[in-house]
């Protein structure tokens, strides 16, 4: 009798929505663990010839870059890892300041001089090839990036993940709010790729802006689109469940095929292909395929999660 009464009076803790659990365990936590591991390898390098390690770490960041909430948002960690776009071209001058005699500690420096984009200048831009102190600064930026990555992962592992699993707190009132946060990061990631990763180098027909492509110096521009879409597809499939999984994968496959077609062309990897009419058409086609994914999610997955968007399917990109 006492046991039965105890069971009746015990608080009932509902398990988190399985989609939240899967997003955390299969996508978010492994993604940030990979970022920590990659930045640690970059920081542990004993030489400034770290292009391969940088590429791995940069890809690890792109894979989680859409998760710009919670631990990534705190203390400007995401900006410390990735200050882009840089509309005023502040990164070169910020790096020059860090290479000077009165350089501030990296953690106190301009955000434009920190993270993967600043390191790309040091590793791939001929203007910095012979700068005194370059190797030391690369090492310092790698340590700084690793510190930011570790802070983000630790907070996800030890605090923020629990807020999403056990809702009813000051951050998420219920599972619906947690799912909506994940959906927002998914759609924001798609929007960022169409508007920034592709839209910036596309510019206008009369004035393409190939030099505005993300990580063009290292030739990662198209690869970043591919990495981001793979990660976004993973999250979309988790949120969509069995009912939407096949349709989601089919739409991402169309975009992947377009990426492959561009990658095999001269000027494809750094998106300088936008400078020719024929190349521009191919990049615009990729942009449109991603926009179509975005519309599909807004019309199917969004309402399922309680998100009703003012999104017009006729808007195109």
TrEMBL record:
Keyword presence, Signal: yes
Keyword Protein biosynthesis recorded: no
Keywords (A to Z) from UniProt: Signal
InterPro entries per record: Imelysin-like, Imelysin-like_IPPA, Imelysin_sf
Top-rank taxon, per record: Bacteria
Compartments reported by the entry: Cell envelope
Signal peptide location: 1-16
Protein name: Imelysin family protein
Organism encoding this protein: Octadecabacter dasysiphoniae
Upper taxonomic lineage: Bacteria, Pseudomonadati, Pseudomonadota, Alphaproteobacteria, Rhodobacterales
């Amino acid at each position: 009798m006492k046991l039965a009464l105890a069971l009746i009076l015990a608080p009932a803790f509902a398990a988190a929505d399985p989609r939240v659990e899967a997003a955390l365990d299969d996508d978010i936590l492994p993604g940030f663990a990979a970022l920590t591991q990659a930045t640690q390898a970059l920081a542990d390098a004993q030489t400034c010839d770290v292009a391969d390690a940088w590429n791995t770490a940069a890809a690890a960041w792109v894979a989680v870059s859409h998760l710009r909430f919670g631990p990534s948002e705190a203390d400007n960690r995401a900006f410390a890892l990735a200050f882009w776009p840089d509309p005023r071209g502040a990164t070169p001058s910020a790096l020059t300041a860090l290479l000077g005699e009165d350089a501030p500690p990296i953690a106190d420096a301009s955000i434009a001089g920190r993270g993967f984009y600043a390191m790309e200048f040091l590793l791939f831009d001929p203007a910095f090839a012979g700068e005194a102190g370059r190797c030391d600064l690369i090492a310092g930026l790698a340590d700084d990036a690793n510190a930011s990555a570790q802070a983000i992962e630790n907070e996800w592992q030890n605090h923020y993940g629990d807020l999403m699993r056990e809702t009813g707190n000051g951050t998420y009132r219920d599972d619906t709010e947690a799912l909506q946060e994940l959906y927002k990061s998914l759609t924001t990631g798609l929007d960022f790729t169409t508007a920034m990763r592709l839209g910036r180098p596309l510019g206008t027909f009369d004035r393409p802006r190939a030099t505005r492509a993300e990580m063009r110096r290292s030739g990662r521009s198209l690869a970043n689109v591919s990495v981001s879409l793979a990660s976004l597809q993973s999250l979309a499939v988790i949120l969509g469940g069995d009912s939407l999984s096949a349709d989601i994968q089919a739409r991402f496959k169309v975009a992947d095929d377009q990426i492959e077609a561009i990658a095999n062309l001269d000027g494809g990897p750094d998106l300088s292909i936008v400078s020719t009419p024929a190349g521009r058409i191919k990049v615009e086609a990729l942009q449109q395929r991603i926009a179509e994914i975005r519309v599909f999610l807004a019309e199917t997955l969004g309402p399922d999660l309680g998100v009703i968007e003012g999104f017009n399917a006729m808007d195109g990109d």
